[in-house]
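Course assignment 3, question 2. Fill in each field.
Student: A.L.
Task: Predict the tertiary structure for the chain below.
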Amino acid sequence: MRILSCLALEHHFPSVILAALVCLLSCLLSMRLQRRSEASEGGVQVAWLVITAICLSAGIWSTHFIAMLGYRPSATVTLDVDQTAFSALIIVCGTIVGSYLATLSWPFARALAGAVVGLSVTAMHYVGMAAYHLDAVVVWDLRYVIASVVLGVFFASLAYEVSGRLEKGLKTLLPGLLLALGVVSLHFTGMGALIVVPLGVSEGLNPATFQILAFTTALTTLVVLGAGGVGYAVEAGLRERSDRRMRHLALHDIVTGLPNRACFSAMVDHAIETRADGKRLAVLMIDLNRFKEINDVWGHQAGDTVLCDIADRLRGHERPGGFAARLGGDEFGVVIPVEDEAALIDELNLIDSLFQTPVRHADFEIITSASLGVALYPDDGEDRDTLMRNADLAMYKAKTDPLHRIQHYEHALGEAVRQRRELAQDLRLALDRDQLMMHYQPQIDLKTGDVCGYEALVRWPHPVRGLVSPAEFIPLAEANGLIGRLGDWVLETTCEEVARWPGSPKVAINLSAIQLNDPHLVGKVLQALVSTGLSPSQLEIELTETALIHDLRQSLSVLRRIKALGVSMALDDFGTGYSALETLRQFPFDKIKLDKGFTDGLSDGGRSRAVISAVVTLARNLEIPVLAEGVETADQLELLNMVGCEQAQGYLIGRPAPAENGAPPAVQDVMWRPAEPAATQTGT
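Answer field:
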């Protein structure tokens, strides 16, 4: 066969081996670099494409040049430097275009890229052959020429096509091997197409010079490839370290360094899968008590100090098979292996003690405590989600019972939560289907006996459970993110209904602490007034001291903006909060509503009467009327009248009822008479 005889009889075999080695190394490295460029973007991708093209073109051109220098025809040889340089330019341009095409998402873009590279190798080869001047008659066998082009384009296209599908293991070497096979087969098939008939003897390059050029070219190319390989290795190492860092950040808490929730979940799954038969695991959910107070009083830096100190204690306490994590905020998760019940109790008490030791920050100590919920595998759940959910339920139970900081999961907790979830879903549907309704409870002026206003109270007639108490579904709405929708509905519905009543009566609407944090609250109030036509003077907003205390400055700012609309403000449940007098000092409320507890205590002795009398005197000096809630007996009404209370509300006066026929609910007949002047003045 012509190709084999050409290799065996007309080539310097060491040069052939050197050319093949250079070709193989450059193709393997270049295909690696090509994958790296495809994974990059922007300027980084351009840089990798240039490096890829330089390494590939240098290797292929050197393969051709070294093999040509190893060719031993029966005639003298000279080289045309210009044509040789032009052949190098062809392969550089071709590999740049091919490398770029391989990064595109077009159909068959990779095969096209390989074809471009294969054609550029072909062009480089035959231009380089044209620079190879022989003192002889040169005859070309067209069959071998065509075969060389087909082999080069086919293997190059195949190499680029499979490079996008092989990502792991030794298979990733296949694209480089195929490309090298294409280059080598193209070159030596093309050489087999060359038939040389010597004409005579002339001076050209001697064999020693050929060998020196060949090895110099190989060495230069290997240096270029080495630089590219080192750059690839360095970048790969940096990328691996960066990936490890990113994986660590993705799976660990930044503040404490403990595993985060995602990592904890995976670790619980693994602990369950690898746990021996008959062995149990305890999953703990731990929540720091009053952590918000630590941040508010001492600052967030102190809060971080507490978290880090607790994390260090948990790390130091880890047992074989156990681990700890920070799940978010002030919540931690711990898993411990369970040997027996006594050992579990000791372990839980020890973990609880870790949270009782004060944390040192700067020059002071911060007292901490925690609530612990425990669920056992497989007793309380056979999968991670169930265990963590049940441990959470137990932890919330512990938070409601300060005398028992450690709570084990009980089935009743799960049933209670299931019912609450069902009720929350029903409430969501009730809002969607407009199944709620407003009731109104009248308020009277004790000086005249006339109705002075109404309090709007939302009611939920559940289709199955009957009338659900607001004390049940309003906290449920707050816990499930529905309080905003519920509050908006109450505001809009109340304004719409009261706007149709005759006589322009005043109506009071309760706002929760969560609603006060709504940045659009003022706009919602204004929109409700404008859209319904209700006068601002008819609307009153009731707030408790508890609602205000969460962020007093922000709350008072919102209230001042609402008051500027002409809406009046009432301080509800006065006397049951934290700073009643300070609240009155900072904001000019239009009314004080005494808590029902004071009204109930009127019949028990003089203390409640004295407190009410003092509040009335204070309010009179501040020029604020006082309304007493929860009036249920004529005696209570009489006593309130005697101490000078201006307004009253309760079942004796009227129960909450819906509006009927565009009119407010009626007021019950009450045995009422004005207070004696002396009693009003003395407050006794």
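Instructor remarks: The longest strand covers residues 451-462. Residues 677-684 have pLDDT under 50 and may be disordered.
Grade: pending
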